[in-house]
Here is the input.
Amino acid sequence: MAVKTMIEAIRDGLREEMERDERVFVMGEDVGPRGGVFGVTDGFFKQFGENRVIDAPLAESVIAGAAIGAAINGMRPVAEMQFADFSHPAMDQIMNEAAKIRYRSNGAFNVPMVVRMPYGGGIHGALYHSQSVEALYGHIPGLTVVIPSNPYDAKGLLKAAIRDPDPVIFLEHKGTYRLIRGEVPDGDYTVPLGKAAVVREGSHMTAIAYGMMLHHCLKAVEEMAGEGVEVEVVDVRTISPLDRETIVESVKKTGKALVVYEDNRSGGWGAEISASIAEAAIEYLDGPILRVTGPDVPAMPYNHAQEEFFMPNPEKILHAMRELAAY
Amino acid sequence: MATSTKSKVDSNGRRSKSSATKSQHEALGLGKEQLLDMWYYMLLARSLDERMWLLNRQGKAPFVISCQGHEAIQIGVSFALERGKDWFLPYYRDLGVCLALGVTPRETMLQHFAKRDDPSSGGRQMPGHYGYKKYKIVTGSSPVATQFCHAVGVALASKLKGSDEVTVVSGGEGATSKGDWHEAMNLAGIHDLPVIFLIENNQYAISVPVPKQVAGGSVAARGVGYGMPGVEVDGTDVLAVYEVAREAARRARAGEGPTLIEAKTYRLTAHSSDDNDRTYRGREEIEIWRAKEPIPKFRQYLLDSGVATEEELGQIKQRIDGEVNDATDWAETQPVPSADDTLKHVFASPEEKAQWR
Here is the structure.
């Protein structure tokens, strides 16, 4: 099996879906000859032509809104927001339209579209190229919100997202794009939406994370193992609808839960995960549910010192794990 | 036999008037049957609308939002479309278009009473939020102007599929202040999409009049900035609207690109049943427009041009009264939605997913 980066796996998944189904097309800023600012659609313009690889004007709302209309008229659009931070002008289209169209039409209409967005920080992207938006979109029923953490999942989840009859927000952590490598099979497979994965088994505590934070957790977990603490790690994979069952089952087994996310602490998606654990497994807990998160400041600063302060990292996670293990 | 001025639109969207010896409808190639059909739908829209207000004031329906004053625009445009083939993305005043595209009075009243079998939303949305998949009328929301973006997407899909479907999307002049309208106009212009932007300018966005809404005063003038003709038309004249809409549809079908139509009329009712228009406009102003409004205007045209007799128009009125009564009485007795269904249709059901390709 070939070892690929996240970006290669996403590109493979998207290309294969476009080859498989001529209804699939991509639309976004700079996705054409430029191949996207991160290179996800590199080579697509040549392979599929300007009708299926559409350089949109710099207007996020109509990128999302036109994708909705095209989906209603039988296409399978994959819209790209250049950065998740810039998706906010499209939020009305995504939250008020795409998410609600099936519900408000009593099931008559549906919107089979995917909106891809690079998100996350730690790459000197500053306030407006670093944001985490999963809690904003995860809050809206009718949207499926996906965050893959590794190349295998990225390809399989993207294929599942494109084949889903309802809108999917597909969030790709920029830090993982070229850093995270993994084995990816050639050819077709899907990874089911709505399913978390236990990526490492352990008996002393459960760490729950997604995207880049999953990798930081795995690093910290190695250290903990050396100290005799076996941490089970759950990769959330689909933010919403949340696979509470997998998370709760793990916590019931280990009795301790640490939730890690880089979004602002208050109202971040880990708050929902924590509440779900408290509701379903409080009698199994022998310690508080701890969170390692970004701080409650408006966004991530550009300079190194403040960016580092903002981002959770293996050291911060390790510190929290030790604290929890000592309970 | 009435003669009338026939309006022509040149490639820059300007209208020139020339005297014609033929009557307006003859010049358009419309016969008696089509004219009486137009009349039927205009009067049906007005009659259903008036009934909905009555039911609202009787406390039988919490909300009504009106098409009164817009009938000539809505029927004129509808008759330029191919039913069952072309797409329509309405806004909340478009009862007339919906009827002309196939929605029945009974279906209309199911929506008004928020009944279980309301095909637009199963009673989930407020009245006026039209959406009927079987007539290719796309579901809409309350935030203004979002539908313009959907419409260019629908039209983009038609183009990608090589279909000659036409998409019409409508809104009020207030909607042209929104970014979504401008973003959609731009995308449509860039890709020469087969879409018609219909602006039903009724002079008010709730209380805000055109001078406080539209810089420069003309919506139609904005077409040129987006690479498409912008056509202004008298929105109280169903035949004039039909003429410009037919040309816009021809252009779209022939691959010549989008058209912006600004049809000017006047909103005869308050914004909605929850609005008090006495706070912002005088009664005299309404009376001036009442004298020009589309229903008596077209009625007079039909009589003056010899297309129909008083007796024939009376028969149509009688038929409509019967249909409105039937729709009201029938819909009122239909079942209401069940609270048990509140959680349905968030996502596709497992059965729907299994069938999805």
